Amino acid sequence: MCETCGCGLTNPNVLLHEHEIETKRVDLEEKVLRHNDRLAERNRGIFEATQILVVNLVSSPGAGKTTLLENTIRALKGEMAIGVIEGDQQTDRDAKRIEATGVDVLQINTIDACHLDAHMIRHALDHFSLLELDLLFIENVGNLICPGAFDLGEDFRVVVLSIPEGEDKPLKYPGVFIGSHLVLVSKVDLLRVLELEVNQFFTNVKKVHPHVPCLSLSAKTGEGMEGWYSWLRDKVKAKKKNLNQPPK
Ligand SMILES: Nc1nc2c(ncn2[C@@H]2O[C@H](COP(=O)(O)OP(=O)(O)O)[C@@H](O)[C@H]2O)c(=O)[nH]1
Ligand SMILES: [Mg+2]
Hints:
With 248 residues, this protein is of the alpha/beta class. It has 9 helices and 7 strands. It has a 7-stranded parallel β-sheet, sandwiched between helices. Helix 3 links the parallel strand 2 and strand 3. Helix 1 packs parallel to helix 4.
């Protein structure tokens, strides 16, 4: 349960009427989010000054974020300097997987929180030689709800939606898709086994966020990965020239 974003708030006072509880919850959420937004702006300033492209990967647990990162790093590390911030409730398992690719990585364990926030990212930055980085990935905690509410100061929020999750997830959890700049439909190697069509996923993404670009790929077979690499190359280049559009 998360106490910082309010999603895990239990009844704070049994004597309060329901509408009073709701008011307190909204006040706390607004205060936390306003504070986070200020810190996110500071992070954005750091990323502007250092010209690092920052990509925040968001998905349900198990959608394939770490596998995607492992393959992406192996493909691109010869042409750009990459760093990774890993977010998980517990363990450094993902950090160890990324470390094996040879790039700099820092694991954040959120313990009680179901998302990363801008304050955590600011502290994590102290671990990296920022002037040497071109691209910083943030793998957010696996969760399709709370990470969508927290700006980290990133350039782009990329949602990874995997085929086994089913094509209805954008309709059920629209917030995170509405706030995204790219949607990757992952594990397309499983389409045939599950008797699904990738267009069903695209259609539902477009219903909640009509203009967001979508790519489909499989980190396992390599299908579609070139499109993702090209997207990253273009954005890293644009960041160096200050050409990326402001994200929000
Ligand atoms: N079939 C298939 N499995 C994948 C693919 N990418 C990841 N997986 C598997 O999905 C599981 C979760 O992957 P992981 O990268 O840890 O997901 P994360 O929790 O989002 O970081 C692992 O068993 C991976 O081997 C893919 O493209 N195709
Ligand atoms: Mg992971």
